[in-house]
């Protein structure tokens, strides 16, 4: 939530001087999100390996990662290279590897970065061995486990799991462990469903690791995680680390799953009113899909939030208002559930905050984040830059 | 369409050296799209004022705009400033103006740039006069006309049209004309519907201009346009200029409206296969919504193309294949209509091209475009940079 009502006078001028639309980050809310999950996961005896894909900002990494050796997950080689350039050393690239990307991974290894790749097929394991043999390097790999039929991975009980682990351990590459992601947890709208999904994720990863060890191989990393399940683990015995990303900013999809409250949403899009359609009772804003993204992640949730819920400039949710349409640089706000907007309360030029459906998607539309620290008497203002591209 | 089969040997090496995913532009197709529409509109006696929002690249502007005085449309002040920095002088910012943006417009006017703003309310007209009075400048404005109930604007027959024009002509600002956009043309799937939408757009703009002139005021600019209607005008009497943007790259939404062929699509996303799910007969690619955008513009068309159609690395459409799901850095390709994919034909590391649903949205996800000129024996390769932000 924006909480701009508690900005200092200096911050208010800084805030007003930024042209809309822009991404506003409430730093204390962000910091609290980071510490809450870290405490929970470390309290259960596992490491937290935050996913960098939501933030993709090296300035943000200083808060996300306590030390240069803190574990981190990335979704692109570009993120890994950016983190490596700042001295972060413990990286998993958690998207299936294609051999065209291996030279950049090998280069990071040469620089002393512990960069690992992910795969789920015999074909990829052979490709990796072949590359490592040709380039005289030893790229470590994890095997992706399918815990819930969501996307890719090897079922924990499959013969192929052992076969792939053997190809990696006996070849030029190296084998570091298993990794799974409970993607189906985004469909769990009941607390017990989330607890079950979390337990299932743990069980699948532990089963895979135990089978590999029973076959005589080491399995150092047992990695699980998704923001919904990360909030719901009861017991992490056998798990070495948990990955999550969206918890850093949180969003309406997560609020719809009851894994956060609206007040935990740390990133909002600040927008200006640019017109009205009195006949249709619409407010036009300068935040279209370029600023909000076109994400419709709440469309299949019990409460559909359109393209985002609306807060006033002080951070209070305007009940019943939604962004119902986005074009490139236009958004349309309407009252849902039969409400009526008093358009005179929203003059052209006035500012609103839009709570995002999906923080990863909304943040991806912004090359810079405008970060306000509302704690203390002389709260700061920082610009964080986003690492772009692949 | 990619047409990579006709790349020269040098180009093939350049193409292979670019890490996926990336935006590939077939330059001859792009150039042909530009000249086709320019010929048509100029042949009907109007000027073409291309919309820069699709391309947002100054390198591309050299092809889009024949001279530094060529008319151009923008959707952000940032685009206008970028074009102004390169000496382009004739700019309409075609999104409703909020007064917070006026200082940057005034600065461009000071630099000799003819930058105009758009508004559709008495409130905005008074705000503009007030600003111009306070800052001793004369910002020119157009009035947005609502021709089809799509979004904003003043109906051409409304009393308010004359009232706003009078406020502008009698105040510190200045009045340059009227502008409309047939946004509803995106719903016209029959040729005759498109012709009707085009005629309606012309009629609304001409009616508005004539009413303003009948009230004793000048109305120099009579501006209309959308890519679907731009292909369908029969007669542009009374119209001074036509705006369109997506025609530069074209896309599946436009192909679905029959205003282009698949072979006219100039921009595709090149992606690598990163895995398979044999049980589900899925191909995983490294193009998720970060590379493709999450646009689902074909969802409401007769032919739903998912998140994009699939071409092989030589540019041939792979019949029946679609990107059915996108996550941040994963796409899933499936055979629709009961087909089956022979996964062995798509090994990990092989490349595919994805035809985009919506060129504006897909291009917006890429800071750089990789442009291949396939004409001639020594075709070139260029990188075009995208102007980012607001």
TrEMBL record, chains A, B:
Keywords: Lyase. One of its GO terms (biological process) is D-serine catabolic process. Gene3D superfamilies: Alanine racemase, D-serine dehydratase-like domain. Pfam families: Ala_racemase_N (PF01168), D-ser_dehydrat (PF14031). The keyword Cytoplasm does not apply. GO terms for molecular function: D-serine ammonia-lyase activity. InterPro entries: Ala_racemase_N (IPR001608), D-amino_acid_metab_enzyme (IPR051466), D-ser_dehydrat-like_dom (IPR026956), D-ser_dehydrat-like_sf (IPR042208), PLP-binding_barrel (IPR029066). It comes from the Bacteria. PANTHER family: D-SERINE DEHYDRATASE, ZGC:162816-RELATED. Belongs to the DSD1 family. This is DSD1 family PLP-dependent enzyme. It comes from Shewanella pneumatophori.
């Amino acid at each position: 939530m924006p909480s701009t009502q508690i900005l200092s006078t200096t911050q208010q001028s800084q805030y007003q001087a930024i042209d809309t639309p822009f991404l506003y980050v409430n730093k204390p809310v962000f910091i609290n999100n980071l510490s809450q999950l870290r405490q929970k996961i470390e309290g259960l005896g596992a490491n937290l390996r935050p996913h960098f894909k939501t933030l993709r900002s090296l300035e943000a990494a200083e808060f996300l990662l306590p030390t240069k050796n803190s574990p981190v997950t990335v979704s692109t080689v570009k993120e890994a290279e950016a983190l490596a350039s700042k001295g972060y050393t413990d990286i998993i690239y958690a998207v299936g590897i294609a051999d065209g990307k291996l030279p950049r991974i090998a280069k990071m290894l040469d620089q002393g970065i512990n960069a690992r790749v992910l795969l789920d097929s015999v074909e990829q394991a052979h490709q990796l061995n072949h590359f490592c043999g040709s380039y005289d390097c030893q790229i470590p790999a994890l095997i992706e486990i399918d815990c819930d039929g969501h996307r890719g991975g090897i079922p924990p009980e499959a013969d192929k799991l052992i076969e792939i682990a053997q190809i990696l351990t006996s070849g030029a590459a190296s084998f570091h462990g298993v990794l799974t992601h409970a993607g189906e947890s985004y469909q769990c709208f009941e607390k017990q469903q989330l607890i079950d999904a979390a337990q299932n994720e743990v069980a699948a990863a532990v089963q895979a690791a135990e089978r590999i060890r029973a076959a005589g191989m080491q399995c150092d990393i047992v990695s699980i995680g998704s923001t919904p399940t990360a909030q719901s683990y009861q017991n992490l015995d056998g798990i070495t680390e948990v990955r999550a990303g969206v918890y850093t900013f949180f969003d309406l999809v997560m609020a719809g799953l009851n894994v956060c409250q609206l007040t935990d949403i740390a990133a909002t899009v600040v927008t200006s009113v640019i017109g009205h359609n009195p006949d249709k009772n619409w407010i036009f804003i300068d935040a279209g899909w370029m600023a909000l993204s076109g994400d419709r992640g709440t469309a299949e949730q019990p409460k559909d939030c359109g393209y985002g819920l609306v807060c006033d400039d002080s951070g209070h949710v305007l009940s019943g208002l939604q962004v119902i349409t986005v074009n490139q640089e236009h958004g349309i706000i309407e009252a849902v559930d039969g409400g009526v907007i008093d358009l005179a309360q929203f003059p052209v030029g006035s500012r609103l905050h839009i709570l995002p459906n999906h923080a990863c998607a909304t943040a991806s539309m912004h090359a810079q984040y405008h970060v306000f620290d509302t704690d203390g008497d002389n709260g700061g203002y920082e610009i964080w830059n986003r690492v772009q591209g692949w």
